[in-house]
Amino acid sequence: MAIELRYRDGTIHLADGEDDRSSDLESLPGVEPDPRSGGYRAPAYRYADLRDAIEKGGLPYEERVFDARGGDSLDLATDYRLREYQTDALDAWEDAGRRGVIELPTGSGKTVIAIAAIAAVGRPTLVVVPTIDLLNQWERELEREFSVPIGRFGGGEQRREPITVSTYDSAYLRADDVGDAFEFVVFDEVHHLGGEGYRDIARLLPAPYRLGLTATFERPDGAHEVIADLVGDRVYRLDIDDLAGDHLAAYDIKRIEVELTPEERQEYETAQETFVDYLKSTNLQLRSGSDYQKLVLRSGNDPRAREALLAKQRARNVMMNADAKVDALERVLDRHRGDRIIVFTAHTELVYRLSRRFLLPAITSETGATERRQILERFRDGDYSRVVTANVLDEGVDVPDANVAVVLSGSGSEREFTQRLGRILRPKDDGGRALLYEVVSDETAEERVASRRR
DNA sequence: TTGACTCAACATCCTTTGCTACAA
DNA sequence: TTGTAGGTTTCCATGTTGAGTCA
């Protein structure tokens, strides 16, 4: 009798009938005995390895993992003509056994590659995206390209079709009960999959074909290694500089250094000293994010640690929201009267301050969906030529193109910086260059923060 | 259907140069 | 001699999102 493979609740179950093949089965990747059923089981994401090992070992097997409804091949056709690097990326993914991550900058056409991959695989596909905005964009794009109905998990709808788009949150909630429906899964902005909860999505799905898309694969916490295990290694990579001047606009980065006022300097030094003194007195070394995490943990029951962290927070506020930055922005706005400008900050309070002072439309997490849409539409139509925002427009939102970005403050995250830069790199009609201003408070920790993100 | 609300999850959060004990 | 980890176990604050609930 053949070994029967079935999917149930995020797990592959193996039954070998009356034959005793326990030693064969236990040597298969990820397989262990299942006391409850008396058979064997393996985590769903190991399905591809499992099937390969069974075939290699010449064991007879019967595949009942996927829902019969997805039995027929999808007849998918798309008119897209890929650019050379897009074809190379797709080939690299095919060569890796239709698994792996493609890293390409924002605006280089990652969606196009995914659509070509969906057409090539021709099997039921789940596309997972981080935001409702992207959910809508993907749905529209897929409807335009394919003649099959497009399903949707998220934003209040739960409709399953051979090609379905889902948010990460909905995919997390539904993975174990729809796992048998999809043989191909595409993770857009795949770096999100490194989150503690989200990685379960990939674990619970048996889909043998997997594609991850991102502009910034590596994560500071090292979780990209988990992603590589679940989706496949990075198989292709180009960064902004590989495409700038060709498929993306050429760009310049200008750094503006500003001085703190005497009062700000006094406040900054006092707070910074409190923080550093605590580190010295406790012999604590901060070399990485995890060291900082230790300090945060300690602050739970050590009042001095808590005080040190609050002081650090104060110092950060001073350097990131310095008065001179507002003046620097005024000069930039004067210099670029005819340009389209996006201003980025790290704090919402500064967004509203700038909005009042320069009469700029503002978008933060507090801005409702309707108002946000209106502002972006007016920016797209040219009614507005400037927008100020905190972190909302970093990722997952279709932002109209601009040619000047001003980063007044931000984190040390390379990802955040790359995403912000990406907002001005759509090729310009006149072939002009994009320009990013980075405003940094002189002689503060912000200089280090700024160098870390590049 | 919309809006206001709560909740949970995720991301970032990083000083200046060195102490001590222990393992390789 | 050289290299490396270091005690703990729900986590200071801010920003952002999606899901769910209720009116």
Name the features.
ATP-binding, ATP binding, globular, six-stranded parallel beta sheet, DNA 3'-5' helicase, eight-stranded mixed beta sheet, 454 residues, alpha/beta, MutS, DNA mismatch repair protein, domain I, DNA-binding, Rossmann fold, 17 helices, 41% helix, 19 strands
Topology at a glance:
Blueprint: E1 3-8, E2 11-15, H1 22-26, E3 32-34, E4 39-43, H2 47-56, E5 61-64, H3 84-95, E6 99-103, H4 110-121, E7 125-129, H5 132-145, E8 150-154, E9 157-159, E10 163-167, H6 168-178, E11 184-187, H7 199-204, E12 209-214, H8 224-231, E13 234-237, H9 240-243, E14 251-258, H10 262-282, H11 289-298, H12 303-320, H13 323-335, E15 341-344, H14 348-358, E16 362-363, H15 369-381, E17 386-389, E18 404-407, H16 414-422, E19 434-441, H17 446-453
Helix pairs in contact: 3-4, 10-12
The chain binds a DNA duplex (24 and 23 nucleotides) through helix 6, helix 10, helix 11, helix 12 and helix 17.
